[in-house]
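Build the 3D complex.
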Amino acid sequence: MILGGLQKTTLIDYPGKIAAIVFTAGCNFNCHYCYNPELRSFSPNFSVEEFFKFLDRRKGQLDAVTVTGGEPTVHADLFDFISEIKKRDFFVKLDTQGSNPAAVRKLVENNLIDYIAMDIKAPLLRYFDVINCPVNNAAISESIEFVMAHAPDYEFRTTVVEGQLGVDDIEEIGKLIHGAKRHYLQKFVANNNLNDPTYSSFHAPSEIVMEEMRATMARHVGEAFVR
Ligand code: SF4
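Done.
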């Protein structure tokens, strides 16, 4: 594993649990709005040994670990890494953009994942506009279907930048995940460290449009939220 960062505690990332967040380094997408462009490269920031020493010290204080990126599933040894976390009896949440359905399947089928948060970047035909590189649409569809059918608990989530996705796009995403349990629309917040610096002047749609998007999504999923 190549690890890029650690957030030692969060009360808001994993629903109902006190969690640490471990960031894996490296991603196969190139999203314009990526908040962690330094995590797109495969540069280690700290060691796996340090991470497990940290976890062992926090036993009894943390309930869970969120494994996020970058994109965790680009790492062939993700299975072994999460197995080690599970051996220590933590709940595990996996954040993924769904480009590696085989990795997600293997983890879930071996009871190594308790919660999946999967990004749906755009309607399938518009992925390139958001991720800024080619994508295997069949892989994304396979991950969606697998998560909906087999994940112990899950959410889908979509980051919204004004001018990049509109209400019609949210309707298409809704059709793509129709019948899903839960979806979050995430308001894009600009900063000065984005993958595409031109996005630092972009922003989320207005509250009115966000609510229209949420109501559109709510027609397709069990629960639809904005955050
Ligand atoms: S925002 Fe896009 S480029 Fe950045 S880590 Fe996530 S999937 Fe990769």
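The mean pLDDT is 97.
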